[in-house]
């Protein structure tokens, strides 16, 4: 027997799309499994078995036999940067470089292929490449041949600019900013090329030649289509830089987006009342497949860059302060937006940053609208803060591959060495948060880490990179169960967006977002899941990928 959407009104209504031959994982407690699903328009019409299909079909119904694939609610990446990432993921992919010799080789090859006067670009650079040396352009200048170069670190919170790039940008010494961004300089006040945080990085970024709009639009469509091919049906976009909304509007002029996007523009340190009111007005902006639905803050930077906010400084004497010069200004801005009915999202990596964010949300004035506020990353967390997420109703949003891809169980990596053993052992406490009753949304933070959700789901369960069985798991007690992991991309991602009543499960009336795996993500070994084919992706009733 099938469950259907308002059966009395739709008994004679045929489905537009029927999926059969499926192992349906509905993630609905009332009916956890099924064999077929019917879709009409952008919603699920009915859930049932093969025998129900004849009641759903009409002359124009498309029937797709999934051949035994497992159908889950559509996967949603709860933290990514698809539009601004186009400008970040440019040039040579440096993520495979493991030491300075490899980095110099890649840069020399890239410089040789760069036209005269052109820029050498790179992204994904791991600070572990530099070992115990300071990050400085002097270490790579000989490979660049005098070309202007801009190399983005993997965390996208810092970059390395060559001498020529600094010259073109007019950066000749230290600068003052409205936050703790920094142009790193040597003892003689000469820039080393290392730029920490957005305000410092923008000094060079603004002189890099811009890519034409049409080229960016084409690249964005390809990117979103590639994401759909991995099973993604949507994403929570954690920035809104420059002309991002105009670019999305232009893309929709041609066709529907392959993914549905929910966007949170930045509120940068130093924002005044007029800027806050502009962010409130931005919440009205939307297209067919995208909408602005929150505001993003950064209370700190990153551990690797020495700009996180820790209870005690790191082993370099850094990461001792908020990115905001006065954290009270952050609190006031969050409260202003909350009173206006705007959900907030805060990047908080260090334990002090997480504590202050929770203090801020816990101190919202009585009578403030009930909103779903979020904390992103939560890389190191004091044990006494774990239960506060559930108690305050604050969403935790984390990226398991940040742990598995960039840190090591032996603490030999830059992140762990900066924190020291005790704090590193509290890294990415995913299981503690889930077992405390917190909502835990999962994502990739692309382009910081690859966007493929299969690898993230596997890493969340393994606490090591998928496909690396010899790697030692990092804090294995924090591994998620298969159900917890898939919920992070479905039911908990929906709750994080305030959409729990209309998405995240396969039930009649919910949005028709569906992902078909060649294996069952709840029973398949994680390494097998990471390599599994995606047979079909459906976003809002539209097939966005078909194998």
Spatial separation of the terminal alpha carbons = 30 Å
Neighbour order of strands in the largest sheet: 4-3-8-24-25-26
Percent of residues in β-strands: 15-25%
DSSP helix fraction: 25-40%
> What's the count of strands?
26
How many whole angstroms does the radius of gyration measure?
A: 24 Å
**Segments where pLDDT lies below 50 for 5+ residues?**
5-11
Count of individual helical segments: 21
Structural class: alpha/beta
The largest sheet is: 6 strands, mixed
Shape: globular
Residue-averaged pLDDT:
95
Write a structural description.
This protein has 547 residues and is of the alpha/beta class. 54% of the residues are buried. The longest helix is centred in the middle third of the chain and has 16 residues, at 213-228.
List the helices and strands and how they pair.
Blueprint: E1 3-4, H1 7-10, E2 17-20, E3 23-25, E4 33-34, E5 36-40, E6 43-48, H2 53-56, E7 62-65, E8 70-73, E9 75-80, H3 84-88, E10 92-93, H4 100-112, E11 120-125, H5 141-144, E12 149-153, E13 158-161, H6 163-169, E14 182-185, E15 191-196, H7 198-205, H8 213-228, E16 232-237, H9 244-254, E17 260-263, H10 273-282, E18 290-292, E19 295-298, H11 327-339, E20 344-348, H12 351-362, E21 374-377, H13 386-392, E22 395-398, H14 400-406, H15 414-419, H16 421-424, H17 430-435, E23 440-442, H18 453-462, H19 482-488, H20 491-496, E24 514-517, H21 526-530, E25 534-539, E26 542-546
Parallel strand pairs: 2-7, 3-8, 9-16, 10-11, 11-12, 16-17, 17-18, 19-20, 20-21, 21-22, 22-23
Antiparallel strand pairs: 1-6, 2-5, 3-4, 5-6, 8-24, 12-13, 13-15, 14-15, 24-25, 25-26
